[in-house]
Amino acid sequence: MSDVSAVAQGATPTLTTPEWLARHARVHLATYGPPSRVLVRGQGAWVWDADGTRYLDLLAGIATTLLGHAHPALVAAVSSQLATLGHVSNLVATPGQILLAERLLDVCGVGEGGRVFFCNSGAEANETAFKIARRTGRPRIIAAEGGFHGRTMGALALTHKQSYRTPFEPLPAGVEHVPFGDVAALDDALRRNGPDDVAAVVLEPVQGEGGVNVAPPGYLAAARRLTRDHGCLLVLDEVQSGMGRTGSWLAHQAPHHLGAAMAVDPMMAPDVVTLAKGLGGGVPIGAALTYSAEVSALLQPGQHGTTFGGNPLAAAAALATLDVIAADGLVAHAGDVGRHLRQAILGIGHSGIRGVRGEGLLLAVVLAEPVAATVARVALESGFIVNAVSPDAIRLAPPLVLTRDQADHFVTALPDILRRTTDTLERART
Ligand code: PLP
How far does CA 250 lie from the centroid of its chain? Predict the structure, then answer.
């Protein structure tokens, strides 16, 4: 039996990690850098590698597997949907896609006239937002320094990081970046060329890839007022921050972002919100939500589309994910465990830790030195999956089902991880 058919039939792969990695290197484009582990199985917040070693997954496939691994409700929903109707096309409708759109508009607090476009990833959700912005007929789009919106050409144009952009220039034109959190800079940029030339302002409530930077209180409300004054769209990229991760269904719904302002004036809601990552609990699906009939009308029949977007399988996964999040109170749980994790890390009082930033279960442990890559490597050797989101910060974006005990398990190990990091770096210097 070939390896592939063995895996398909549920047999445990018998290769060791080095054997798998050698084969990986021979067949994949080297876009990600060489991996050091091959994961074969997961359960809840735990995963196991090809050699049987267990890890606490504090990254959740980069802020994605909200229910943890192999959640029975997700497995059942996807299995039964695949056995019933796996994929059709967007030439027809399916019940799951309709139910999911209704649920999403509801949990996201979208009012009358709001609509959903389903796609397969965060980049595609942002491409949709980009096309909506272009349809205003205005030439400029303002995004934030430190912002990350994906790797396709439009999403990349919105993304700030120069090293991601430069090899692919020219990118779609018209995007400018302003310092994140700086209301005056946004105001200046909006006024620069007269009153009516900005199509959209695109922001993450919490910049994930940029280092887990939370928008300062009041920033999104100011951005909303300014965009309204200039008649342009406010697009919020909640691909990483959305679906309960930060302790509210969407990060911008928290009172200190737009929540308090939206409670008084529903017109303070954003115009477009993009989602992906956690939406399908690990099954690929993205969405762009429009918040008013006027914005919904910007994309007309034939102007956008995708083969897989919102197919029965992905819709079933997302519906099951939403069901479990709601039934198990995982939004509040993310807030609680996130606060606990932050306090516990700060409580260690370790000189190597400068602080913790983020919201809910989207956190960065800020280090005193730019040693995050080594910390992540040592953490992996110690049985924890985290990542270096910047040279001096480790990102924690675990499944929302993470328990306090699992959080404590990491916090207890952290001093030893930091000590071994120092030892490793000292050994490398001498
Ligand atoms: N937007 C944000 C805020 C993200 O964090 C990411 C991915 O990290 C994306 C968009 C791109 O999503 P995807 O990798 O699914 O294309």
Answer: 11
